Amino acid sequence: MSLEPIDPETALELYLADRENELTEATLYSHKSRLGHFVRWCDDQEIDNLNNLTGRQLHKYRLWRREEGDLSIASEKTQMDTLRVFVRWLEQVDGVEQDLSTKVRSPSLSPEQNTRHVMLDTERAKKVLAYLEKYEYATFGHVTVALLWHTMMRVGAAHALDLDDYHPDEQYLEVCHRPETGTPIKNKEDGERLVALSEQICELLDDWIENKRPEVTDDNGREPLLASVQGRAHRTTLRGYCYRVTRPCAYGEECPHDRDPDECDATHRDAAFECPSSVSPHAIRRGSITHSLNSDMPENATSDRANVSKMVLEQHYDRRTKREKMEQRREYLDNL
């Protein structure tokens, strides 16, 4: 087989372009971020032609990434699994030796290790929302974060909402699966549901719609609830805002990582995810679910509202401690 020379940066650009139609925006964004570290490492190692990439170099990268990123085992596995997919793609375009992808090693995880624990806890969520309430009331970002926290929605469901899906008089949102016009949701028709809203969140939505929301339609002529001046806000835009606003320095807290904000790369708009304290929409969802369970919302009600099975709820979302669960059960002893 004759390999064709290709540099790491070009390879990543071609990979992302090739997979653009098969990956969601969120997944594409994640691949770009993870593989960006590999491109940076190649630059440090003066690797300018991936034809010469070896299994030993891939192992050195794994060790470097583990130390440089201070990664958990689960994060290391995610990073290396994505790299394996990338190397497998390179094999198909004659960029690396065949079967090199089999030499990309990643750790095996136990069920406990495979469960993500990152979440926006209740205390931090209150601080973020209080800051937005005071300084950015009814802005696009405020509405986005408040909506995600209040409803426990996935970012894809929030992205799919139209103005007509909001029913202010009855105080609820209607989540719909509309793949034919660009807004599929996870679980498809099984993910469709009505989500009750509090009076406070309705007031916020009313103020957003009346005073701040741009009068725009998307490419399919629909009126998105979460709109930017260009139309329906992309999911990457929603994700990016969540990362930015959950940095402690963004809501008036001192940096817990002893970084100088004037020198920290994570203060840049597109690099907020590099802040160790920033969180994704999914972490907001996980925190909101845990907050609801801690507030004695029944598991069945939480499961239905968040559109997640009780088994998945318990394994991946419920971050209550054993003691917290015990104390909640104690309240029912008088009824026995």
Task: Provide a short characterization of the protein structure.
The protein has helices at about 10-20, 25-45, 55-70, 75-90, 120-135, 140-150, 155-160, 200-210, 235-245, 280-295, 300-305, 310-315, 320-330; strands spanning about 165, 170-175, 195, 225-230, 230. With about 325 residues, the protein is mainly alpha-helical.
- CATH class of the largest domain, named Mainly Alpha
- Major sheet: arrangement of strands: 1-2-3
CATH H-level superfamily of the largest domain: Intergrase catalytic core
> In terms of per-residue confidence, which ranges show pLDDT below 50 for 5 or more consecutive residues?
111-116
> Mind telling me the C-alpha Rg?
22 Å
- Reading the helices and strands in chain order gives HHHHHHHEEEHEEHHHHH
Description of the structure:
With 336 residues, the chain is mostly helical. It folds into 2 domains: 96 residues, DNA polymerase, domain 1 (Orthogonal Bundle); 161 residues, Intergrase catalytic core (hpI Integrase, Chain A). The chain is 48% helix and 4% strand. The chain contains 13 helices and 5 strands. The strands form 2 sheets. The protein has a 3-stranded antiparallel sheet, with no helix packed on it. A two-stranded antiparallel sheet has the order 4-5. Strand 1 and strand 2 form a beta hairpin. The longest helix has 20 residues. It starts with 7 loop residues before the first helix and ends in a 6-residue tail after the last helix. About 2% of the residues have low confidence.
